[in-house]
Fold this protein.
Amino acid sequence: MKNAPSSTLEDPENIPNHLSDSAGIALFAKLESFSTAALNNCLALTNAEVRYRCLHELILRRAITIDTAKTFMKDSNVKTRFEALIEAERLGLIVSEDEAKKVIIKSEPKRSGLLSSSSNPTPEEERWWNAYRHQKLCMHAEADLINSLKPDSLHSWETELALYDAYFRTHSAELRANLADGFKGALENKFEAHTKTFSNLGLDHFSTSKNLLSFIGTGLVSDGLTILCRHGSNADLPLVRKCVDSFEPYSSIELLRFLAKFGEWEDIERVVKIVGKTDPRYYGLFSNNDDNYDLAAKIVCKLATRRTIDLFNSSISPYIMTKILKFISNRDFLSLTDEHLLKMFSNESDNLRRMVALKCVQHLPKTRLSALLERYQVNGEYRYYNVIHWLDLGVSMPSDVARTVAKRASS
C-alpha cells in the first residue's frame, strides 16, 4: 500500500485532476518516492500547490526542459512562476529585468484614470519579485557589490543583504554585530550620511525619515535573521534568541527551521510568538499563513519531546493547540489525562473541541470514551454539542467504523 500513490500516478489516466488542498498535500507529501514520469504527469493537475511541489521536485532532480520551464513561467501560482523563471535562466534563457518582472507580477493593472494605469502587484507577487531581485544580486561578484553600496541611502539595504547572504563567511561578523543591536548603529550611520548628502531637503523630510527608522530596523532584523538562520550554526542560538526577544522580527520559514534544529524547550514560546508576526511589508496586518502555523506546530511537538504534560499545561492559544493536536504522536496523545481532555472539551474554540474529540475517537478505547462522555455530561451543565456528538459516535458505533469516520473528519 505504501507504493500505491506512486504506481497510480504512473498512468496519466489515473491522475485525480481535482484535488482539495488537504488531499493534494497529503498525497504528495513525499515526492522523492515518485518517479520522474509520475511527477511530469502531475504537472497537469489543477491544484496549484501540488503543481508547484511537483515542479520544484523535478527542478531539484534537474529533470525539467527549458520548454517546460517557459510554460510554467505563465502559471497562475506566483511561486511556480518564480521557480520556473529561475530554472529557465539556469538552462540558458536570457531574460531582462523588465521581462522577469512581467513573469512574476501578473495581477491586473490598477486603473488610476481614464487613460492611465499603474502596476498593482499583490503582496505575494511583491514578495517573490523581491526574492528574485535578491537572488540576482547574490550572483554578482563581491567586489561589484561592495562598489555599489549606498552609505547615504536610508531605504536601500538590498546590496548589504546580498553581501551577507552570498558571501556569508566574509561578512557574517558584520551581520552578527548589526543583529546584536537591532541594526541601530548601522541605521544611525546611514541617517547621518543621508542628512549630509540631502541637506537641502528640509527638516520635514528628515523628521519623517527619522520616524521610519524603527520600521526599517524591524525589517532589517527580520531579513538579517533569515540569512543568519540559513547559514548559521548552533553557536548562533543565543543571538537568535536575543533578536526574537528584543526586536520583534517577522516570521520566516528559515527562522522557524533554525529553532526546530537547534532550539530547546524554552524556545517553544518563541516559536509561538514568531509564527503570529506576519510581515506587513508583504502581507496585511491580520493575514494568516496556515502553512507556517502547521510548521510551527510540528516544531513545538519536537521541542516538547518527553514534556507533553507540561506542553498541555501551558497557555498556548487554542488555534495553535489545535494544530499541535493534528501532529502530536499517538503515544503523546495517549499520555494526556482525562482532566486535560475535559478541559479542552470545554474550550471556547469550536475547532479545538472538535479536534480533541476526533482524536479521542481515533485513539481511545470505548471504555475510556464512555467514561469521558459520562463525566462531560454530569450535573446537567451546559456542554458543547460537537463534543457530545463525536464521543457518542465513538461509543455507539463499532470501533473500526468510528475511527475511520473520525480520521476522515479530521483530515
Summary: The CA atoms of residues 207 and 213 lie 10 Å apart. Confidence is low (pLDDT under 50) at residues 1-13, 17-21, 112-118, 284-288. Residues 138-249 form one domain.
